[in-house]
Fold this sequence. Notes:
disordered C terminus; binds pyridoxal-5'-phosphate; Rossmann fold; globular
Amino acid sequence: xxxxxxxxxxxxxxxxxxxxxxxxxxxxxxxxxxxxxxxxxxxxxxxxxxxxxxxxxxxxxxxxxxxxxxxxxxxxxxxxxxxxxxxxxxxxxxxxxxxxxxxxxxxxxxxxxxxxxxxxxxxxxxxxxxxxxxxxxxxxxxxxxxxxxxxxxxxxxxxxxxxxxxxxxxxxxxxxxxxxxxxxxxxxxxxxxxxxxxxxxxxxxxxxxxxxxxxxxxxxxxxxxxxxxxxxxxxxxxxxxxxxxxxxxxxxxxxxxxxxxxxxxxxxxxxxxxxxxxxxxxxxxxxxxxxxxxxxxxxxxxxxxxxxxxxxxxxxxxxxxxxxxxxxxxxxxxxxxxxxxxxxxxxxxxxxxxxxxxxxxxxxxxxxxxxxxxxxxxxxxxxxxxxxxxxxxxxxxxxxxxxxxxxxxxxxxxxxxxxxxxxxxxxxxxxxxxxxxxxxxxxxxxxxxxxxxxxxxxxxxxxxxxxxxxxxxx
Length: 474
Ligand SMILES: *Cc1c(COP(=O)(O)O)cnc(C)c1O
């Protein structure tokens, strides 16, 4: 399988190279040259365990790693999850909650980042290379990325986050990892500032090459790929032996998660509707409902991991939806960059597969309270946004709501939602042993200005550089 850029000006490359590159050199995002179909094999896949299904899905896209090695990478990546199903489905009222938070940092990003960390380690070992990972996080990506690579040889990781924006627990999950290959940078700015700093550093090809920069943000194709697996898994499980299709509600920030669902559907898995649920940052719901793509200011909400205006994976969606037309993508992105707005005319609804809605703070809190009171099930605020959006699905067919974080990561929002009642059952859901111990640990972080030169200087001073044997070997 070859990988191509959404901007069309990069020569095709294999999976390994695509993973190591992160962004394409032409500034676009990498995608497989075609989306493989498993439509004719669904019967055989119906009863597979998560890890075996992951292997079947991933090997369609990864043709330059030996099967046994791939299987081993997948197995090791999910060995640390504390549920035998990895991403268990829980029936709650008339929805199915898919709990994606059973990995080491209690957020869904572990599903992809445990795999990516092992994959990087494998690729670097076989090439005798080193890497400096640069990431930007609004909350959960940072800790999950750090957990994916902490202590790994040949890798340093630099994680930027907007100072004061992630919850204190989220921050502690990053800053209490004191392995000497981990650097946490508290940036004086917004998440969009962090993301654009990251883009400018990666667009400096000389700098990128000199420091062997790698990406763990959802621009990295391997992350999207790992997420395709749980859509496949849940849709097969709930399809009643392929006699019905399953819809998904996806709390959305950078569009990585829902893109994975879109790809799972293109592969032929029994998926009907994907509901895109945003918080007050509604650029994507406005687009899907009107055809207008227009950047607004960032709102800070109860679901900080979704406080994003410009979603980096949206470009991949535009590319797939246009029938892989890179000229159309370039035109769209250029217009957006110069005008701050693009209007797709005569094009409603924009997409039959995707329904989209913005859920405000009031409805998020009400949803948390409703599920706690009626079903004794505690939703974290991100998950609650997705669950509230399930009202868009009117049919009797199964609806899966993706639970993207454990509620114990966001106790303030949940206490606010449940202010009237203090049921001990609910309060128990807000405890997790892994989080309780954090406050006692030593913290390590550095404050930094939202400034490209400051960032480059910091990386230059702390990067992992090739040792002598490595540089003569390469
Ligand atoms: C990252 C994140 C999201 C949003 O996922 P995207 O892939 O950015 O759309 C939602 N919920 C939680 C808890 C997250 O960490």
